[in-house]
């Protein structure tokens, strides 16, 4: 078995190149997208230290790859070939289905995530923890409130996934309320 650092290096290089090929940046910033992937992975690493029976290597790979099908030209087959089918299935579950109405996409993705291991649930929680930052300037109040509501939906649906990450997400949602206040 490859050591964790080698797994991380292989996976982040693969993901960073795919996202950079799309010139993808973190929305509302000029930061390369790999910063977001690193932040999600950091949440996973900390959570794994607080969680019994947690497949850290698998979760780290899924965290680094979680947006690769949705945001790049990478295919399910390519992920299966480069990593394995379990990782590709996890990334596919974390990928919103663009062929269904926008308002149904999160629920659909969460349903697919719930059929997989708690590590996959944890990556979804870590992703939203990382995303609940200062909202991009171009977002209106309605979009900001909808994003917070969606975060609550994620937290509710994936309850029991990972106590550490659930607590972190709950705190982030609370904190995010300041952006939803119209009197500010």
TrEMBL record:
Transmembrane segments: none
Any one Pfam family match given in the protein's UniProt record, by short name: HD_4
InterPro entries the UniProt entry points to: MESH1
Superkingdom field: Bacteria
Name of the protein in its database record: HD domain-containing protein
Organism annotation: Flavobacterium azizsancarii
